[in-house]
Amino acid sequence: MTKMTPFKALIFDMDGLMVDSEPLWFEVQRDFALARGGEWTSALADLCVGKGLANTIRVMERSLGFAVDVDRDAEAIVDSFIGRVGSLSLKGGCEDIVDAIARLPTRLPRAVASSSARRLVEATLGRFGLVERFDTLVCGDSVTRPKPAPDIFLLAASRLGVSPAACIVLEDSVAGVEAAHAAGMRVVAVPERADARFALADAVVADLHEARELLGLR
Fold this sequence. Notes:
It is a single chain. By secondary structure, the protein is an alpha/beta fold. It folds into two domains: 9-20 and 89-214, HAD superfamily/HAD-like (Rossmann fold, 3-Layer(aba) Sandwich); 22-86, DNA polymerase, domain 1, CATH 1.10.150. Helices cover 42% and strands 10% of the residues. The chain has nine helices and six strands; from the N terminus they run E-H-H-H-H-H-E-H-E-H-E-H-E-E-H. It has helices at 22-35, 42-48, 53-64, 70-82, 94-102, 118-127, 151-160, 174-182, 208-214; strands at 9-12, 110-113, 136-138, 167-171, 186-189, 203-204. Strands 3-2-1-4-5-6 form a six-stranded parallel beta sheet, with helices on both faces. It is globular and about 55 Å long.
């Protein structure tokens, strides 16, 4: 496997990439929709992956026909998710790649750039003791435009003090890959499902173990 070097910073997505959270997201959103008399399906959920909770709530309104208040409903869904973070687990290879970065002889700047709200990101990563392993957390409430807009990745690069072209992004969603590409960054896709649009990524790997090898992290 050809190594993707050199690079000066790594930016990680969280949901579905570091943390196996997509099943919990579906459960929480399904329960929310059911309480409003709607049926949230896996097909609808797939359309929303990586694009932020506000987009998901608007899709619910259009597809399921109930009225929404985006801010209020987002708070309720986030509260429900945080209340269940104890059921989450890390994706395979997550601890290994974070540990490998820590062992590097020269410090490598690293960030998490997630479309989720900051308090949810902190609660999720905090469950695994990962908050302190990153230099900055850039969250959905830090930017105006969610993925696939490049804003969240550009802000992460700015906070790390590294040019976008020197960053590599690790992403599991099409929206995230598109956002990283639009930001002028190289991107390694670790997809949970097949999609021809992942061809936009600079590399596609099966899991974070393969990503670590690709990045030359031991």
